[in-house]
Specification:
Layout: H1 3-13, E1 19-23, H2 27-35, H3 43-54, E2 63-68, H4 70-73, H5 83-89, E3 93-97, E4 102-104, E5 112-114, H6 120-130, E6 134-141, H7 150-169, E7 173-180, H8 188-208, E8 217-218, H9 235-249, E9 256-259, H10 266-278, E10 285-290, H11 292-302, H12 309-327
Parallel strand pairs: 1-2, 1-10, 2-3, 3-6, 6-7, 7-8, 9-10
Antiparallel strand pairs: 4-5
Helix pairs in contact: 7-8, 8-9, 9-10, 10-11, 10-12, 11-12
Length: 342
């Protein structure tokens, strides 16, 4: 592996003021998104929707990378330009989701293990040839009665590290995504505990499997109150607890942390990221890797209609701009009312 290239790519993805668009929804997930706006999830509709996002004028000011799905990395823009080539021509780094999804973990009721290691080395080589320069793998950790178990945490951490090592071998920066789900009524303290245990296991496995820390990015959950809990922590509390947790476990050698939105509202995801950056200088860049929290307004504005493409692009551009402001700690809710550029 070319260590210098990995480090340069990782640093470019977390360049100042920029973050990642996660456009790697699986077929089942994108179908749910399309169902919500009454649009059939055909290959052409999926291509057209991704095309409007990727061709949004000026969004490269705020978006440094895009995570693609297997179908999407093989598709092209309306003018025939392959999506990876289109993105790269705008200075946006193409990436690829490589796991095959979370499946039930044997002998562990209510817990999952992410699959996709079989044949991964060959797939990574192909994705590299198609233009990808980074990859992503998501592990899912649930909080509930007696869970997460040590078994679940360590099994997923081991798989994440195996994926990361293979990615670096192939010349792709691995985005390591251990997501502790915030579904449920648990407290923010319980979230802290589960996230802390998970991060400890992940970085232990990454070290033991010889993964180069300067050539990875971490994509974690924020430390939040369970969404169904009666007491929702403030943005300042979320920021303080998240930073406290990550300072315990994430090496300063890691270039950046690109948070997932994980079911938060668009504006909450932005405000929480802003509150973390407003706390001051951290050992790592604190950025975003949002899917729904960047796309939801654009998807609604588009509605599957060609005449709505520009309105959808303005909505996407606006959310990208708001999250760029959050990267500097300069976001304010009043900014949501700003005119969106044409």
């Amino acid at each position: 592996m070319d260590v210098q290239e990995l480090e340069a790519t990782a640093s470019a993805i977390v360049a100042e003021g920029k973050g990642i668009l996660a456009a790697d929804e699986s077929d089942s997930t994108i179908k749910k998104r399309f169902d919500s706006i009454g649009v059939e999830s055909t290959e052409e509709n999926r291509r057209a929707y991704r095309d409007l996002l990727f061709t949004t004028e000026g969004v490269e000011e705020y978006i440094s990378g895009v995570i693609l799905f297997d179908e999407t990395i093989r598709q092209s823009s309306a003018d025939g330009t392959p999506f990876p080539e289109l993105l790269a021509s705008r200075g946006v780094i193409p990436g690829i989701k490589v796991d095959t999804g979370a499946k039930p973990l044997a002998l562990a009721r209510g817990e999952t293990i992410t699959e996709g290691l079989d044949g991964l080395r060959d797939r990574l080589e192909e994705y590299r040839d198609l233009g990808a320069r980074f990859a992503k793998w998501r592990a899912v950790i649930s909080i509930g009665n007696g869970i997460p178990s040590e078994y679940c945490i360590w099994t997923n951490a081991h798989a994440l590290a195996r994926y990361a090592a293979l990615s670096q071998e192939a010349g792709l920066v691995p985005i390591v995504e251990p997501e502790v789900l915030m579904d449920g009524g648990h407290t923010i303290d319980r979230s802290f505990e589960a996230t802390s245990h998970t991060l400890h296991a992940v970085f232990t496995e990454l070290r033991d499997q010889r993964v180069h820390p300067e050539g990875i990015l971490l994509k974690p959950n924020m430390v939040l109150s369970g969404y169904d809990g009666p007491d929702q922590a403030s943005h300042d509390k979320v920021a303080a607890e998240t930073i406290r947790c990550f300072k315990r476990h994430v090496p300063a050698a890691v270039p950046g942390i690109v948070f997932l939105s994980g079911g938060q509202s668009d504006e909450d995801a932005t405000a929480n990221l802003n509150a973390m950056n407003a706390l001051g200088k951290h050992p790592w860049q604190l950025s975003f890797s949002y899917g729904r929290a960047l796309q939801a307004p654009a998807l609604k504005a588009w509605g599957g209609k060609e005449e709505n493409v520009e309105a959808a692009q303005r909505a996407y551009y606006h959310r990208a701009k708001m999250n760029s402001a959050a990267r500097t700690g300069m976001y304010a809710p009043e900014m949501e009312k700003e005119a969106v550029p044409a």
